[in-house]
Amino acid sequence: MVRYGEHIKTIDIEEVVYFYTEDKATFLCTKDARRFVVDFNLDTLDSILNPKVFFRINRQYIISIYSIAEMFAYSKSRVLIKLNPPTKHETIVSTERSADFKHWLGDEK
Description:
The chain is α+β, with helices and mostly antiparallel strands. It has one domain (2-108): CATH 2.40.50.1020. It has 2 helices and 10 strands, in the order βββββαβββββα. The protein starts with a strand and ends with a helix.
């Protein structure tokens, strides 16, 4: 459930492509690039989302396997990810999470 102005709206989890934090708020982004504020922080979301579909790539983003448009090798074995829909932030898998991320990708294939 998300806040939408003065309304509360439900969003199917299948429509969510990623969650992110910005200015101390947590947002979700849908397949059609709509963004909504959510009441949970990323730590809480990370503990309740399906780990086969969602992965926390760094302190700012949890992404869906279905949101990955492209991946590029980055420094120190990190991975730069281009998301779909695009985001204004650089989405790079942190060094600490890179090995787990690659394992997660392998599990999905």
